[in-house]
Amino acid sequence: MAILTVKTYKDDHVIAWLTALAITVHVLESTLPSPFPGFKPGLANIVTIIVLCRYGIKMAAWVSLLRVLVSSLLLGTFMSPTFMLSLSGAAAALMVLFLAIKMTHFYPFWALGPIGYSVLAAIAHISVQFYVAYYLFIQHDALFSLLPVLATTSLIFGIISGLIISSVLTNLENKFGCTKLNYGNKRY
Fold this sequence. Notes:
This protein is globular. The chain has one domain: Arp2/3 complex 21 kDa subunit ARPC3 (Orthogonal Bundle). It is mainly alpha-helical.
């Protein structure tokens, strides 16, 4: 009988811990009261952008999608409207981040930092979530009156998250000598 061994690296363990952190933050964030539907700060996305800046888009996609899947299983929302909205928002944010990173390959002067990535992801996330909610669940024109408020709060929370991410990355670099800050450029 052959024993299958899987070789893991230090980065694999770090990604696993960061995924667990993102899941924990997502579950805790779901307990926060919301003044109106769709109003969440998106704190778990902080972890995703940190992973993007340190390990690239591939690892950020793993963390984000695992967070959505495992959190929905823990919260009992798997395959519910909440899951569909969360998955569509995460996929949209990842797609926009991927495109932003690809743009930096063609236009290096256009490179974004943590705040730019965070704002792009937040706006993409709420935009797609809004249209998924409209087309799949609530097909009423009055829903569009919420869009400016949701977009504005996404912009604000995107900036705040970006500032937090920037601070965390700076502290990682200063305290632990982490110099792998590549702001999303492909590392693998």
